[in-house]
Amino acid sequence: MDMNKEQLNVFLEMSTVLTAFSEYELKGTGQLEAYFNTVVEIVGQGIMDELLNAFAEVKKIANNNEAILNKQLRFQLLSNDKLGPITRNIIKMWFIGSWYQLPNAWRENYGESQKDITFVVSANSFIEGLLWPSIDSHPPGAKAPGYGTWTNKPQITEL
Predict the structure, then answer these.
(1) What distance in Å separates the CA atoms of residue 88 and residue 100, rounded to the nearest whole number?
(2) Is 11:33 a contact under the CB 8 Å cutoff?
(3) Domain-embedded: residue 159
(4) Which residues, in sequence order, are CB contacts of 151 under 8 Å at separation 6+?
(5) Quick check: is 158 in a domain?
(6) End-to-end C-alpha distance for the chain, whole angstroms
(7) Range of the domain at 46
C-alpha cells in the first residue's frame, strides 16, 4: 500500500500524544507503517482521513497548551462514537501489538470489514509493544533483559 507521507507523519504525531512515547521511540519499534496500514485496511482511507483531520483540529484548538490538548483529545477523539473505538484500538496496537475487532455497534453504524477481526499485527508487534518498556520488563521468550542479568538479585521497589 502506498501511504501518504504527510498522513503517516500526522499518524505518528497523534500516536505520540496517545501513548506518551516519543517519535524516536515509536519509530524504533519498526511498527509505524504496519499500524498505519492496519487502520486504513480495516476502516478505510475516508475514516482515516477523518481521524487525522480531527487530530489536526484538536492540535489547532490546543495551540500548544497540553491541558487543552488532553481535554480536546478526550472530547473530540476518544469519546466520539465513530472515532473513539478506532483511537482506542490504535493505543492498544502500540502497547500490545494487536488489533482488536471493533464493537458490533460500531460495525453496524459505520460498516463492516472482513479484515476487522482480532489479530496480532505483525511478527514483531508483540515483541516491540510499548507495554514492555512501560513496565520496565521485556517480552517473555523474545527479548532477553541482557547478558548476565540473571546474576543480579531482583530489586523490589515500594509503591
Answers:
(1) 10
(2) no
(3) no
(4) none
(5) no
(6) 46
(7) 5-151
